[in-house]
Amino acid sequence: FYGCDFSVLRFAPDGTPRPSIGIPPPGIRAEAVDAAGNFDVLGVDGTVTRYSADGTTHMQVLSALQGATAIAVDAAGQLYLIGDQRISSYNADGSKRGLTISVNFVPRTIAVDASGKIYLVDPGDAQILSYNADGSLAAPTITTGSAPAGIAVR
After folding, report:
1. Longest Cα pair distance anywhere in the chain, in angstroms?
2. Cys staple from 83: which of 11, 68, 94, 154, with CB 3.0 to 4.6 Å?
3. Is the four-CA dihedral 91, 5, 122, 34 of positive or negative sign?
4. How would you classify the pairing of strands 48-51 and 110-112?
């Protein structure tokens, strides 16, 4: 999957293009793919819409999350959103979970691994921080030497 402006480009594991998915305005701010291959799109307007892996169905999961800039999804389908120096978590159906992580920087991107560990990119200090599934800071912090543009984990 690859999101750009008003469409999601889809590819088979071997790189063969699949039909794209049109995204209505105002367009895509960020995207994440869950374990089932469903595609979650964070729109410029702060809505989160989930598209089925084959692109034939979709549903709005969250609406009007002002300030949201990035999205990740864990193995259970739970959503994590960056906005206003905090990470908020939601169940797969869009209901709010209790986990909120506050940070003293503006995270650029977020990823969640199979065990539920959360990774944040801190571009100002050129580092990647990790948090346990309960929101507590985990070790180690990875210093990169230059501001990382993104992160992906398994």
Report:
1. 43
2. 68
3. positive
4. unpaired
